[in-house]
């Protein structure tokens, strides 16, 4: 798959609450190549920060030539705070699309996302033709984001909040258990403990599971090994039980990786 550095321009940026930002960029070359589950590396204007920010694609529109990134500001020094201050019209170099992406030829899917793992699942649901269910996990009702868009993109949406202020009280697993019919395939993105719990859940019930792993990435192109994760099989490239999340993933079949 082709990857390229593109000079993009910010078309809009707005806060969605709770430190989440919604950024739309004009990026026709990246949009033309993108598939759901991929990410891009955003280079900040402050050149003192050498590492780009890896951000997953929440949406892309080939006709409009745009990509949409929904990200969380992770605090001083992380670069996302600076990114959130950029107004429309700002030029940003962006490398992408990067990584492999989710499978989309499934007859029915259940997308399971936790926190900032939610956004890439929206692009996925828009691309899957069959029956679509979403299970979304948030801390509290006040920190929910993209819920209405998932309502529009999926046949059914189930929400779990840790404090029980909306939907099922507890985790995405608690919400999954309430589904009238258990899914055949789950595609997920979220923190590692959530993916680990999902792997056990899916294995017990014979559900096919894909996980998109949110590792800290640097180069994004498989060169620095800053993102390796333990794999169950010896990798043909490196001869060790390692996978590069940025290059071999970020989406893996759950059996491929140790969670
Ligand atoms: Fe450099 Fe993955 S981020 S190898």
Major sheet: size, sense and barrel closure? 7 strands, antiparallel
What fraction, in percent, of the residue positions are helical? 10-25%
Low-confidence stretches: none
The SSE string, one letter per element, is EEHEEEEHEEHEHEEHEHEEEE
Indicate the overall shape: globular
Q: What is Rg?
A: 18 Å
Query: Which distinct ligands sit in these coordinates?
Result: FE2/S2 (inorganic) cluster
- What is the residue-averaged pLDDT? 91
| Binned strand content | 35-45%
Strand neighbour order, sheet with most strands: 4-3-7-1-2-6-5
Defining traits:
seven-stranded antiparallel sheet; 18% helix; globular; 259 residues; seven-stranded mixed sheet; 6 helices; alpha/beta; binds FE2/S2 (inorganic) cluster
Helices and strands in order, then pairings?
Blueprint: E1 4-17, E2 20-26, H1 28-33, E3 39-42, E4 53-56, E5 59-61, E6 66-72, H2 80-84, E7 91-98, E8 108-114, H3 119-127, E9 131-138, H4 147-153, E10 156-161, E11 168-169, H5 172-176, E12 185-190, H6 192-205, E13 208-213, E14 228-230, E15 242-244, E16 251-253
Parallel strand pairs: 8-9, 8-12, 9-10, 10-11, 12-13
Antiparallel strand pairs: 1-2, 1-7, 2-6, 3-4, 3-7, 5-6, 13-16, 14-15
The structure holds FE2/S2 (inorganic) cluster (FES).
FE2/S2 (inorganic) cluster binds next to loops.
């Amino acid at each position: 798959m082709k990857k390229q550095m593109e000079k993009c321009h910010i078309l809009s940026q707005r806060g969605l609450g709770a430190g989440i930002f919604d950024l739309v960029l004009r990026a026709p070359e990246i949009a033309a190549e993108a598939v759901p589950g991929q990410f891009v590396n955003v280079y900040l204007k402050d050149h003192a920060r050498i590492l780009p920010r890896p951000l997953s694609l929440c949406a892309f529109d080939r006709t409009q030539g745009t990509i949409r990134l929904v990200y969380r500001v992770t605090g001083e020094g992380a670069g996302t705070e600076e990114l959130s201050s950029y107004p429309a019209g700002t030029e940003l170099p962006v490398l992408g699309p990067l990584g492999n992406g989710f499978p989309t030829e499934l007859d029915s899917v259940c997308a399971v996302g936790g926190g900032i793992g939610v956004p890439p699942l929206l692009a996925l649901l828009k691309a899957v033709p069959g029956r679509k269910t979403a299970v979304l996990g948030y801390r509290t009702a006040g920190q929910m984001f993209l819920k209405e868009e998932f309502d529009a993109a999926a046949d059914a949406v189930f929400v779990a909040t840790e404090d029980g202020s909306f939907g099922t009280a507890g985790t995405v697993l608690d919400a999954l258990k309430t589904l009238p019919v258990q899914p055949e395939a789950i595609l997920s993105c979220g923190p590692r403990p959530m993916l680990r719990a999902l792997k056990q859940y899916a294995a017990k019930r014979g559900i096919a599971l894909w996980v998109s792993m949110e590792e800290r990435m640097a180069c994004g192109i498989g060169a620095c090994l800053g993102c390796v994760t333990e794999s169950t099989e010896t990798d043909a490239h490196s001869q060790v039980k390692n996978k590069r999340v940025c290059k071999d993933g970020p989406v893996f079949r759950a059996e491929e990786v140790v969670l």
